[in-house]
Q: What sequence folds into this?
């Protein structure tokens, strides 16, 4: 089976007046079906920019990106919206839940517009929240809110799950619970998962670790033995 994502010479330049920031500088990368990949690097190294382009939230300055056989860099805004709706689940550092909606209703925001969703109750059960269906975000811990966000992302049955600092707003103990959910989703559902982080410890749960520096890939490591999040020393 071919790559789920492939980039060639991917470049992203931000300009403010005469100032030019090269957020991505010729990135060639393949991400594989069913793998959990961690993108690791300091702030400003290009990780989030890459994730946003893979997810169809931003467009490259030059180079090409494919999702399977679909060239994302050739799509217009409407086609990118359809791509995001049908194929991609997002999990961000801040949960982006609607405060006036219950956990079930937050997930239904996605299932109501997806072509082949799983029921909201099932998605919440997948992340261990079957007992919190009718609770509002203010009635849940940060970790529980993030798990609602993950349930919302997987409820559309996405082929890929893109996670931007999913534990960045959580303490280490709660972060472990969230990472366990992401790993279980990857293992059980086979969802290709990309996690970007500053936390080097998270690399130990990945199939592959891709290190970024100054908008380029610095090196790639393959984990022969993956650790469960609970077994990682934080």
A:
């Amino acid at each position: 089976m071919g790559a789920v994502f492939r980039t060639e010479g991917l470049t992203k330049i931000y300009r403010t007046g005469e100032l030019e920031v090269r957020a991505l500088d010729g990135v060639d990368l393949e991400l594989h079906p069913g793998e959990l990949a961690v993108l690791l690097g300091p702030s400003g190294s290009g990780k989030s920019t890459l994730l946003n382009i893979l997810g169809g939230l931003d467009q490259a300055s030059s180079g090409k990106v494919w999702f399977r056989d679909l060239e994302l860099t050739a799509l217009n805004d409407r086609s990118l919206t359809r791509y995001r709706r049908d194929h991609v689940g997002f999990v961000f550092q801040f949960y982006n839940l609607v405060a006036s909606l219950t956990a079930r209703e937050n997930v239904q925001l996605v299932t109501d517009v997806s072509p082949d969703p799983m029921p909201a109750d099932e998605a919440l059960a997948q992340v261990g929240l079957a007992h919190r269906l009718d609770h509002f975000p203010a009635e849940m811990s940060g970790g529980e809110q993030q798990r609602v966000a993950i349930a919302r992302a997987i409820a559309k049955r996405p082929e890929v799950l893109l996670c931007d600092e999913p534990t960045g707003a959580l303490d280490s103990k709660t972060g472990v619970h969230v990472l366990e959910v992401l790993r279980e989703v990857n293992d059980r559902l086979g969802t290709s998962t990309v996690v970007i982080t500053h936390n080097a410890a998270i690399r130990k749960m990945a199939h592959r670790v891709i290190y970024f520096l100054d908008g380029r890939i610095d090196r790639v490591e393959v984990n022969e033995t993956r650790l469960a999040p609970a077994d990682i020393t934080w």
